[in-house]
C-alpha cells in the first residue's frame, strides 16, 4: 500500500516544448492519489492532451519533449521510459479520438490490450469477461472490425483495451468527445464502478466540465498550459469562475443559455439514432 | 485442340512463374504494412541471402545446415537494421526512412560481395529442371516445386499473422502504432520481427531465383519485377501480392505468345509495367490495397 502522502501519479513542474520552439506546458504540477478520480479541465488547446501524452511518453512521435520537471508513478520516475514500458507497469492511456485498431476485430483489439500480461490465459480470459460485463455491447460485436463500430462503441473498445492490461491507473483523454449526453453518463458510471470495485485510479481530461465534476473527486483547471485552479470537485463546482466559463451558470448559480443541457432533448433523439443497428 | 493444350500449358507456366514474383513482392508488403515504408533494400536482401547461403555451402556446410545458418544471418541482419537504421529514425517521415533503405540497399550489395566475392555462382537446390507431363500439359518440375514452397511460405505467414499473439500485435502496429505502443507493444520488437520475416522471404526468394538465374548481382533487379505486382495488388495486402503475382505471371506469358507473335516478340519484359500503369489509372490503390475499414 502507498503511504497517504505519496500519490500514485505525480507530475512535478513539467514543461513541454514542441518542435524545440513552442512552449505548450508551463510548469504543470498535479497529483492523482491511489484510488482517486482526478479531472483535468480546460478549453481547447489548454494542454490537456499534451499533459496526458507527456505522462504516457508519447510526445516523441509528435516531436515534443519534456524539457523540465519530472513525472513520478508508483514512486519511480517514468519520464525517461518508452511509450511501451508503461502498460506492463499498470499505467494505461485511452487516447483522444479513440484510436482503435480499425482492421482488427473487437476481441482482437481487446487481446492486444493484454499483450504484456504474463499471468496466463485464464487470467486474461477473466479480464475479457470483466470487459464484456462492463460493456455488453462489445460482446455483441466482438467479431466485427473495430473500424465499423459507432463512435460510442469505439470509445468502449478503447477503454476495454486499456482495462485488459489490468491497470492500476488509466489516463482517459476526452472520453465524452462526440458522444450523446446519455452515453457519456453511461460510460462515466462504468468508470465509477471500475474505480470502486476494481480500485482503478483515473486521470480524466475533459472539456465537458459538468460531467467530469460529477464523477471526479478532485480537479485541476488548465488554461494556456498552466494550472490556474485546483481543488475538490465540490469546491470547483461552487467556484464562480468555473461556473461562468465552464458550467454555463450565471453568478447566482442559475443556468444560462450557454448550458449544454439546453440542447439535450434533440441530442437524446440523435443518441437513439446512433445505436440503431446498421 | 492442340491450340487449347498449348494455351493451358502457357497459362500454367505463367501462373507458376507468377508465384515467384509473389515471393519477391511479399517482402515489400510485410514491411510496408507494418511501417508504411517502401523498402528499397528488399532486392539487395534477396542477393545478400542467396550469396550467404551459397557462401556457407562453399564452406562445406550441408544443405540444411547452410539454410539454417543463412536464416540465422538474416535474423541477425533484421535485428541489426532495427538497431542501427530504424531506431534512430523513429518519428521521421516515411520519405526519410525510404532514403535510409536506399542507403541500406547499397551497403548490403557492397557488403555481401565484399564478404563472398562477386563472381556468378551456381546454386543447386537438387530439383531437376525437367518438364513433366500431366495430362498432355508439360509443366516445369522446378517451377512447380518453387510454387509449392512459395505457397507454403504464404500460408505459414498468414497463419502467423492471424493466429498468434505477435501476429496480432503486428497488425495492431500497422493500424495504429501509437495506440499499439500504449498497449505495451514495443515498436522495436515488432520491427525486428517484420524485418526478420522479410529476411526469411528474401532467403526463400533468393534460393529459388538464385537456382534459376545463378547467384549474381542481377538478382537485386528481380525487385523490379515485384513493382508491377505491387501496383496491381496493392502495397499493403498479402492477398494482393498473391493475386497480383499470378496475374502478372500469367498475362506476361500469354501476351508474349499471342501478342508478341504479332509484333515480333520481346514483349515479356515490358508488358507487366504497361499493365500496371494501365491499372494505376483505373484503381490507384491496387486490387486489395488501401482498403480502410472505416465507418463514414
Ligand atoms: N504536435 C504538435 N506540434 C506543435 N504544437 C502542438 C502539437 N500538438 C499540440 N500542439 C499545441 O499545443 C497546445 C495544446 O494542445 P493540446 O492538444 O494539449 O490541447 P487540449 O487541451 O488537449 O485541447 P483539446 O481540448 O482541443 O483536445 C495547442 O496550442 C496546440 O496547438
Ligand atoms: Mg485534447
Automatic annotation (TrEMBL), chain B:
InterPro entries in UniProt: ABC_transp_permease, BCAA_transport_permease
Residue ranges annotated as transmembrane are: 6-30, 37-57, 63-86, 95-118, 138-161, 189-209, 229-250, 257-282
Q: Which UniProt keywords apply?
A: Amino-acid transport, Cell membrane, Membrane, Transmembrane, Transmembrane helix, Transport
> Main localization of the protein?
membrane
CDD domains found in the cross-reference section: TM_PBP1_LivH_like (cd06582)
Which compartments is it annotated to reside in?
Cell membrane
Q: How does it sit in the membrane?
A: Multi-pass membrane protein
Q: Which Pfam families match?
A: BPD_transp_2
The protein's superkingdom reads Bacteria
Q: What family name appears in the similarity comment? A: Belongs to the binding-protein-dependent transport system permease family. LivHM subfamily.
What's the protein called, per UniProt?
Branched-chain amino acid ABC transporter permease
